[in-house]
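Researcher: Please generate the 3D structure of the following complex. Treat every line as part of one assembly.
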Amino acid sequence: MMIEKIVASAKSSWSSGEGPYHHIAISSRIRLARNLAGLPMPPFQNEDMGGAVLEKIRTAAEQIAVEEEAKLSFFRLSDLSPLDRLILIEKHLISKEHADGKAGRGLLINTAGSVSIMINEEDHLRIQALVPGLQLERAWELADRIDDLLEAQLEYAFHEDKGYLTACPTNVGTGLRASVMLHLPGLALTNQAPKIFSALGQLGLAVRGLYGEGTEATGHIYQISNQITLGQKEIEIIQNISTVTRQIIEKEEETRKIIIKEMPLQIKDRVGRAYGILKNAAVLSSQEALNLLSDLRLGIDQDIIQIGLGCIELNELMVASQPGFLQKFAGAPMEALERDAARARYFQEMLEKRG
Amino acid sequence: MMIEKIVASAKSSWSSGEGPYHHIAISSRIRLARNLAGLPMPPFQNEDMGGAVLEKIRTAAEQIAVEEEAKLSFFRLSDLSPLDRLILIEKHLISKEHADGKAGRGLLINTAGSVSIMINEEDHLRIQALVPGLQLERAWELADRIDDLLEAQLEYAFHEDKGYLTACPTNVGTGLRASVMLHLPGLALTNQAPKIFSALGQLGLAVRGLYGEGTEATGHIYQISNQITLGQKEIEIIQNISTVTRQIIEKEEETRKIIIKEMPLQIKDRVGRAYGILKNAAVLSSQEALNLLSDLRLGIDQDIIQIGLGCIELNELMVASQPGFLQKFAGAPMEALERDAARARYFQEMLEKRG
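Model: Done. Output below.
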């Protein structure tokens, strides 16, 4: 497989499928941190050691027998262009840190983009499964299966009492991070978000923005994930976060109904303006685009506006409005103002085609 | 004539015709202040005296022979509804002060709305002629003719040295105020306006906003008028202000070309957003609507956007977006938020019809 297949399209397995509660839950992700026994973890590697780990994992991945679409393709990060690496971040397939392309860093990814494995990020292996909607269990099955297949080929660093060993102590144990990406304009606009997020902290859950920024999330998109990896079974962690997420979704649904009932004009206005600006602006920053998309998404979900777009198309617009993808789309690197102009053109075309 | 004919339409003689430089000069107005000899001026009238003046002027107006369309119809302000009086202000046919409808206040107006005479405003007579574009001379001819016809029937308070006597000393002499309403987004956006306006002050000209507010004019619309009424002939005053206005128009045209050349994206963005918001908002305040109309007007004039509307239609939108007209249009009095919603609906309909 060529990386082109992944980076040239705004589609992703997590963004382009239907999933449970996908009007609010954009995607679910499972990440497993694993390390090879007897080899220094990435923070302690020299370049040669990194190369050796990379080869070991690459060979193991080649051995595992899966159906065609689950098949993993291997890439050295240093072989990918900075632009392609940026798009992989924008599609949530690799981390910002991994994208610096330091020698020894690798990526295993399936055609659908539902499984991506970062090699030599903070740990030797970061196995990720990404699915649309709220279905952490499905993501878990996917990651767990790949993990088992790899474990049959590789000896993992594992301690009987502690569990899987990881570079950072916060990941020791299951090595599991389960996270869901939620669109919460109702809770954000009514200022309920800070209180709810503070309660989540007490439940051992963390809240971050779309690309990991602070809690003032762009586009009212929040990632909720577990902080604790030790002392609980994987399935317990997952069920815990799923239950909490369903409660948040209910609260968001309820709040959307309330604000639309109590201030219908203001919400209609917000949605209409978002559509009008996205369709007619000549310059759009990435942040403004995400914020306006949030309003539009709310309006579409609540039937305030009909423009022939659904959640899936909005997810794609969200990815497509990122700097890397825009430059790929334009076929050339661009300065910030050019990008903002290209973004505005992109939205204009997409919305005129549909509206 | 019924007042309905004037107040039920967004059209006005000054807004709905083509005039010289009408892409920048919205309208030209001449106002003559006159008083009847031997009768106390309005600030010193009791109710009976006001009624007597009103009757005298009404009778005189009935005597003057003009063609049908120049014919003046008489109204007592107290007979007009508060809403109709508000619309007369919005169409610049009477002043805010005159609209309070105090006993003894009257209005003479022709069908076209090009001549309106306030009776017992600050002076016994305030004769106004309003025409589209920059053509103060034409407005002057119109006002002068009506003035002559009335003077043939009435004895004006006139002093050989001082000229026409008025309630406020600033109007003594010619009693003339010539004013032009200009749309100056170029000069405003480039911050040249304050400097130019301060120079106008030194030339004895005053600058005000669309409805007489301060120099931070809503919608980048400015009224320029003479301050001095004494010591110059009418035609000199008019020629002076016409010459200065033509210079301002040239400067504005030049500036528009420069900003479109130097920051094409930003201007396109501004115009596009204005259009997008006017067409899609659900709540629009009068001030926001005027500001967005200003951007749209600039875009249409500079061929940045084509939506099947010209200066004349934009003038009508400007009048139609005012609170009084909107309530007339809706057929019912409305609270502020309802008006803002009605305004948004009005723009949506107008722009969908055209765009």
